[in-house]
Amino acid sequence: MADVWTIAEVSGGVLKEISLELLGRARTLADTLGVRLASVALTSHLNEDQVERLAASGADVIYLGQDSTLEPFTVSAHASALMALVAEHSPQIILAGATTYGRTLLPYLAVKLSCGLTADCTDLAIEEGSGNLLQIRPAIGGNIMATIKSPNHRPQMATIRPRSTPLPSLDYSRTCTVCHVPITAAVHNPTHVLGLRPFVGQQRSIEDAEIVVAGGKGLKKRDNFALVEDLASLLGAEVGASRDAVDRGWATYPHQVGLSGKTISPELYIAIGISGAIQHLAGIKTAKRIVAINNDRDANIMAIADYAIIGDLFAIVPLLAKRLQERRKTQ
Amino acid sequence: MHIIVPIKQVPQSSAVKMDPVTGTMIRSGSAATLNPLDLYALETALCLSERSAGSVTALTMGPPSAAQILKEALSMGASRAILLTDRLFGGSDTYATSYALSKAIEHIGSFDLIITGERATDGDTAQVGPGIAAWLDVALVTYVSAINTIVDRTMEVERLTEEGYQAVRLTLPALISVVKEIAIPRLPTLRGKKRAMNTPIEEWDARTIGADIGKIGLKGSPTRVVKIESPKVARTAEVHIASDEDSMKGAVDRLIDIIEEVYHG
Ligand SMILES: Cc1cc2nc3c(=O)[nH]c(=O)nc-3n(C[C@H](O)[C@H](O)[C@H](O)COP(=O)(O)OP(=O)(O)OC[C@H]3O[C@@H](n4cnc5c(N)ncnc54)[C@H](O)[C@@H]3O)c2cc1C
Ligand SMILES: Nc1ncnc2c1ncn2[C@@H]1O[C@H](COP(=O)(O)O)[C@@H](O)[C@H]1O
């Protein structure tokens, strides 16, 4: 029976968490189907310890393509390597992260393979009887959940929202086969990566952050936005912002949360002076816990919050920062 | 420089309501607009074409009412507008949509650049742009946040990734998808609106573009929506009123407990 595949993502020689999350999810699918689980990693070089992490996270097979043309990522290099691999092994399912990588590579690959593709899934299951992959995703700003399948095309393909599933526990006693994939560089690659200008003052993207502290128009002016930034750095969190805050220049676009910004699933989202317009809520529906700090008891954000403090943010946030520091000192 | 901008008509997000009984979407007929993220694609195309004495063609696939968003594109400054409309296109998923749009683009003939929005706010897939690039076999760069230089057939752009801004050089013809940061969309001018009224919208159907009937519409779509349901979104908040010093301390300390829980799993 055909295997289940996940596409690993590597950044600076290290596997991104999504690579392991995908294996955790796909392990269940492969077990239900009674087939092998393979992880495909296309990169310039992957150290032994990283390969072992893939195996420990659930991969039975690792297809490892190592070539300088595979990093940094370009669509044509990765798609041509994958097309050759798929033609050789015919997997029944291919999963990748719903990241800038997966959301670029998979739709391109799906057309080349004449297959369907479901974007940004938050859940997956195997349909009893048919063995089809059920792909579950939020749509229309998270207002509905749609279940989608691709009954007559193989492989079945989906991108999976980062942090929508916990990391699998590592089991270093698992056995795994590593297959080295020969890479033939394209004669002509129309795209060439020149370099990367990393974000300043931001350790990780808000999609990857466990805690996001976000500010909105309630902060009144740019200088006050420091309240949000300071609280975030105190918590080791990333900074988010409503569109109003971004439009006013208090934060830059990579920090915008919502319909026309990022969709995120942190463990904890703290919304400070954000009303919770439907377009903003669209970005945080899959956050595990939502905290609102707002002086309006009837603000929209209350409909989705797990914990709310009704009061003046200019008094609450400084006090929160102070008490946090006090508590840390005594610990 | 000839630039093609595929744009999409989407329901106004605030206008989408759910039928509580059937769990299906109610799209009120009139409340449709141009996908807000496509405005950035249009603006980018218009700026580039002004610099190079080029032209911008707006293209949409949708019901006859989608002509309205083409009028909007024309009044912003697009020089040509094409409406791809046919019952046979109904029910298309992103595979079938990107196929139909790529056939329409082949029918338009030559182009240097295709610019799409980052994603449509209704389907929210961001798959149609990369799909078109695959059908047409052109260079693909997504999430473009700035265009730095264009010299002859070579463009240097920046794209927004999880790690930061990546600089990419690409050879035309190409397809790029752009993010909001790239430009501030212009408003339609009075002159533009007049020109829009005088510019006919070209209507094409499946036959015009020579589409393979097996690859369009519901029949040509590999994916099937099998179920739609409204998730239980209402969470009941634990609400603390912080009106004086004591209640504020209590509320803040409880919040610190919640934060600690997150830290310790
Ligand atoms: C097509 C479209 C796409 C959009 N996309 C997005 C998107 O991606 N992301 C997004 O965020 N928005 C988006 N919006 C905008 C959205 O509709 C709202 O306008 C926006 O989210 C409001 O931002 P806000 O909550 O910061 O401001 P407001 O709505 O003005 O809320 C400010 C809040 O602060 C509270 N407040 C004020 N003073 C204090 C105080 N002293 N102490 C405590 N609380 C206080 C107020 O009670 C209020 O609730 C979009 C809109 C459209 C039409
Ligand atoms: N029916 C359509 N007609 C024209 N362009 C479209 C259509 N659907 C999607 N697009 C383009 O593809 C982008 C991504 O859409 P989507 O893949 O639906 O999220 C949009 O921003 C548009 O530029």
Q: Could you explain how this protein is built, in words?
A:
The complex is a heterodimer of chains A (331) and B (265). Chain A has 331 residues and is of the alpha/beta class. In chain A, 27% of the residues lie in helices and 27% in strands. Chain A is elongated. By secondary structure, chain B is an alpha/beta fold. In chain B, strands 11-10-9-12-8-1-6-7-13 form a nine-stranded mixed beta sheet, sandwiched between helices. Chain B has a two-stranded antiparallel ribbon with strand order 2-5. In chain B, helix 2 packs across helix 5 and helix 3 packs across helix 4. The mean pLDDT of chain B is 92. Strand 10 of chain A pairs antiparallel with strand 14 of chain B. Flavin-adenine dinucleotide (FAD) binds next to helix 6, helix 7 and helix 8 of chain A.
Summary?
Chain A is α/β, with parallel strands linked by helices and 331 residues long.
Largest sheet of chain B: 9 strands, mixed
Q: Structural class, from helix and strand content of chain A?
A: alpha/beta
Low-confidence stretches of chain A: none
Level of helix content of chain B? 25-40%
> Strand share of the residues of chain B?
25-35%
**Low-pLDDT ranges of chain B:** none
The rounded Rg of chain A comes to: 22 Å
Number of strands of chain A: 18
CATH classification, class level of the largest domain in chain A: Alpha Beta
State the CATH topology of the largest domain in chain B: Rossmann fold
Helix/strand order of chain A, N-terminal first: EEEHEHEHEHEEEEEEEEHEHEHEEH
Please work out how many helical segments of chain A DSSP would assign.
8
- The backbone outline of chain B, from C-alpha atoms, is globular
Strand order of the largest sheet of chain B: 11-10-9-12-8-1-6-7-13
Largest interface: A-B, 95 and 86 residues
Quickly give the structural class of chain B. alpha/beta
